[in-house]
Backbone:
């Protein structure tokens, strides 16, 4: 779960990481009296906001109002801005980069820091980036910050501030169950203070039971994907014509791959998961039908999910939704013979192998 | 011992009275797995299927001398259950549960490593050595004893490939599901070491998917250290970047973890990569 900048900064503030003073604006009447130069920042979950015109600088009351007016409701790369953050302008002397992320192969957190901040870290030369694996049982300790400070040539004053920020940032990473906490840029002000000018916080979706206060609708999900999520399905919309229902993430992905290799274009990814419930199959059809595919492929390898249960679900869905679109089914594994018999009695095509089913559905979708 | 388990493996099931735990414990017993006890806090003193003693804690279960556990409890309780097993020194900890916070898994995996304990999963189908022992949820009927070892990041896709191997007349020496999460106990390199050392195993199949660089690291390891024949299959070739394809770990992030990169790495290591799952047996010949 990707947090908006203002939410990330609220968390930073709570943990004592310095951030500029600011407030969130959702409508023009929220704008407070102008006192000093401010930055007006669109709250969208995309990198490179500045380059896309999503950030305005205001040095007068009029510029502040105009900036807010321009940004609120505007579209940046397809996303509508519903909130802006109005923040005190800071005098930038230098920009640094710092983050804690997950190193998957080490199964460990990793600290990444650089004196070259303010740009995407991927574009910074490797020899200017400090990376250090953190043992999750030991956690962050000051020696790591001293090593990073030395690498980055920070003077005594900056190093002390930097290490204090690192310690708090790791606390955010750990206690808020984050995949990523990133400050880019971490600004050294003309006055010699370090301050987090931006905040990128991505929380682990699987940890949200511990963070019930945070609720965000993923802006990158389509309405149908959100509906699927609320019903407990793993569902992704794609831009093809063949609806797909399969069981297990791996098999579902393999089905999409095989369709694509056969010049078929999948309309969606839908993983039924492990189920022995006819209604779960019926509801899966409901979702796929809403995506309006030309044909539907069901690919099941029975295990926990019994093939005959799925067959009964397909028959029930066909009746309930009066489906006239071609349905092609591949059933294998536990109770596959029984399942294919049920389908045959109800005039639904089924095959024992994945390849036969894929060839057939690609052909039917092409004719539809 | 075969890979990680054998006929003498004594298994407990943590969460044996739950919906998943009880169903799969029953299936494991049908397969021939020696389940010596189950835990279910508050339900100690009863029996599972009139046979397996149920106790309140792992500490009490230690009286039955287990050396492996299957954890089938809800995600918020996995950390506690795994720590309970690790604290008692159970040498093999398999976690079935999906949606475990990865921060919990990191702690579990690192603590286990310090104590020489192996963690399988979370969010995977477990381990099967036909027909010595099955710990996990793989369907009983797809196996045949043989010399092909399979390691996979997926569940049903593993069954599909194992089934294809069995139907082609070959059989399996061990099948391990690593799990679909970004942080799991075993890497492909860990299992390659076990497969290379296992006398029963002559050929190896790795089933990878998009996300992370586990496959790329395995490819390099194979080139330098593995003498046995290795065949791979990678899923997610058609996956759009930035989308989680069902598994929490199956995501292409900032260009890292693409199927192309993994296929290329395997090809460079001399490992053939099957285009379709059912092509795997053909490449093993």
Residues:
């Amino acid at each position: 779960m990707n947090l908006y900048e203002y939410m990330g900064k609220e968390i930073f503030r709570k943990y004592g990481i310095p951030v500029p003073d600011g407030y969130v604006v959702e409508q023009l009447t929220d704008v407070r009296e102008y006192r000093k130069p401010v930055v007006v920042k669109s709250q969208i979950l995309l990198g490179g906001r500045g380059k896309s015109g999503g950030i305005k600088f205001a040095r007068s009351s009029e510029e502040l109002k105009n900036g807010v007016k321009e940004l609120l409701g505007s579209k940046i790369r397809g996303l509508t801005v519903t909130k802006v953050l109005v923040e005190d302008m800071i005098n930038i002397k230098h920009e640094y980069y710092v983050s804690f992320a997950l190193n998957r192969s080490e199964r460990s957190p990793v600290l990444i820091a650089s004196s070259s901040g303010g740009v995407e870290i991927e574009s910074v030369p490797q020899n200017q980036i400090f990376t250090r694996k953190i043992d999750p049982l030991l956690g962050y300790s000051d020696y790591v910050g001293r090593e990073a400070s030395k690498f980055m040539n920070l003077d005594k004053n900056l190093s002390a501030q930097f290490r204090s920020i690192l310690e708090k940032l790791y606390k955010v990473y750990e206690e808020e169950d984050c995949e990523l906490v990133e400050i880019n840029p971490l600004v050294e002000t003309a006055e010699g203070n370090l301050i987090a000018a931006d905040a990128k916080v991505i929380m682990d979706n699987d940890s949200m039971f511990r963070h019930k206060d945070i609720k965000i609708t993923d802006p990158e999900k389509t309405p149908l994907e959100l509906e699927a999520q609320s019903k407990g399905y793993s569902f992704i919309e794609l831009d093809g014509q063949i609806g797909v229902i399969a069981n297990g993430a791996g098999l579902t992905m393999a089905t999409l791959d095989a369709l694509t290799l056969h010049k078929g274009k999948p309309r969606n990814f839908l993983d039924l998961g492990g189920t022995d419930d006819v209604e779960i199959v019926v509801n899966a059809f409901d979702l796929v039908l809403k995506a309006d595919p030309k044909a539907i492929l069901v690919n099941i390898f029975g295990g926990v999910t019994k093939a005959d249960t799925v067959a009964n679900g397909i028959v029930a869905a066909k009746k309930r939704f009066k489906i006239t679109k071609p349905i092609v089914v591949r059933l294998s594994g536990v109770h596959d013979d029984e399942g294919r018999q049920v389908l045959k009695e109800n005039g639904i095509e089924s095959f024992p192998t994945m390849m036969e089913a894929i060839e057939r559905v690609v052909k039917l979708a092409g004719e539809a | 011992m075969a890979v990680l388990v054998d006929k003498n493996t004594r298994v407990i099931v943590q969460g044996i009275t739950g919906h998943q735990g009880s169903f799969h414990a029953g299936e494991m017993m049908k397969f021939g797995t020696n389940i010596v006890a189950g835990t279910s806090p508050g339900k100690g003193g009863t029996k599972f299927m009139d046979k397996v003693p149920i106790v309140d804690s792992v500490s009490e279960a230690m009286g039955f001398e287990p050396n492996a556990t299957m954890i089938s409890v809800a995600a918020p309780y996995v950390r506690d259950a795994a720590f309970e097993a690790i604290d008692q020194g159970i040498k093999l900890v398999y976690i079935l549960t999906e949606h475990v916070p990865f921060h919990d898994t990191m702690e579990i995996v690192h603590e286990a490593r310090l104590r020489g304990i192996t963690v399988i999963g979370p969010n995977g189908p477990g381990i099967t050595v036909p027909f010595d022992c099955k710990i996990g949820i793989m369907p009983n009927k797809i196996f045949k004893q043989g010399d092909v070892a399979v390691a996979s990041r997926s569940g049903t896709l593993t069954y599909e490939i194992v089934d294809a191997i069995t139907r082609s007349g070959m059989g399996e020496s061990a099948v391990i599901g690593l799990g679909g999460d970004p942080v799991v106990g075993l890497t492909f390199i860990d299992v390659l070491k076990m497969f290379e050392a296992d006398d029963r195993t002559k050929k190896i199949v790795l089933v990878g998917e998009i996300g992370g660089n586990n496959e790329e690291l395995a490819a390099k390891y194979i080139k330098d250290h593995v003498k046995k024949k290795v065949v791979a299959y990678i899923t997610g070739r058609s996956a759009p970047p930035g989308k989680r394809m069902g598994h929490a770990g199956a995501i292409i992030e900032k260009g890292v973890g693409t199927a192309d990169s993994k296929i290329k790495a395997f090809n460079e290591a001399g490992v053939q990569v099957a285009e379709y799952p059912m092509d795997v047996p053909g490449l093993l010949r």
In short: The two ends of chain B are 26 Å apart (CA to CA).
